[in-house]
Amino acid sequence: MVFDLISEKENLKNSIYILFLLLGLVTSAQTTPPEVETDTVEPLYYYVEGDSIARSAIFLDDVVVLARLKFSDNDARRRYLILRRKTRKVWPYAKLAGERLVELNARLDAMKSKRDKKRYTKIIQRYVEDEFKEELKKLTRTEGQILVKLMYRQTGQTTFELIKNYRSGLKAFLLNTTASFFDISLKEIYDPVNVEEDYLIEDILQRSFRDKILEPQDPAIELNFLELTNKWYKAKPKQGID
Question: Which of 39, 53, 90, 127 has its CA 20 to 30 A from that of 143?
């Protein structure tokens, strides 16, 4: 019985790894030279009504202003910090998945035969196996669940749907059943509008983007952080991952 549970847990950890293989976590063989940044910005000119002299203006990037976090107690603060650490850890994987899903779909759409598509998928799997397998398998249960949510944020599909679409419905069903034994749902969506913990994850992402701790990426789902903040502002952060 113990051996069966260990085996099931190992299968669960493999599921997210398998998904990343299918999404094609591989860099293109073609490289492009990096853009050269300069210290100068070409000014734009505008006229003030009633003034005949053109004036120059430099438009700066938008600055996200976030309210200072307030916690109900030290325990709430601790939970938020734990959630922040786990979110920052798995974000790069979710971001990469969003990028590679677009690339994978484009390449598969360009292939006419199922044989070519199957062959391409196997090549991708072999290429990235050694690089990503062990790292993804080290994720904890809670980190895996956060990753599942962020995968939905960046792809617009649940992990269950991704596995179903790129492997088979039976495989997705078996993986989701196994995941349920360990309190992880591959059908989990990302819903910061109605789930406070998801809002806190989004808050962590926005603050990390602003502070250049994480590299930003637009979500595949519709999100308005200002509206979310207005809704949850009065509810002090008090939830998080244990």
Answer: 127
Residue showing tokens 């006419």: 112
SS3 of the chain: helix, strand, coil, percent, to 5: 60, 0, 40
Chain position carrying tokens 């749902």 = 185
For the beta carbon of residue 171, count every other beta carbon within 10 angstroms: 14
Amino acid at 46: Y
Candidate from 54-58, 61-65, 122-126, 159-163 with smallest mean pLDDT: 54-58
Of 219, 193, 194, 221, the C-alpha closest to 205 is: 219
d(CA 226, CA 57): 27
Dump pLDDT digits (tens) for 173-224.
Answer: 777 777 776 788 888 999 999 999 999 999 999 999 999 999 999 999 999 9
**Which among 200, 221, 107 has a CA at the least distance from the CA of 155?**
221
Tokens of 79: 């939970």
Could you tell me the pTM of the whole model?
A: 0.70
Q: Which residues pair with 57 in a beta bridge?
A: 44
Q: Where does the chain have alpha helices with state H?
A: 2-22, 74-110, 114-137, 141-155, 159-166, 169-180, 196-210, 225-232
Which backbone phi and psi does 72 adopt, to 5 degrees? Answer: -70, -30
Q: How many CB atoms lie within 10 A of CB 101?
A: 21
Give the angle 88-142-19 at the CA atoms, nearest 5°. 80
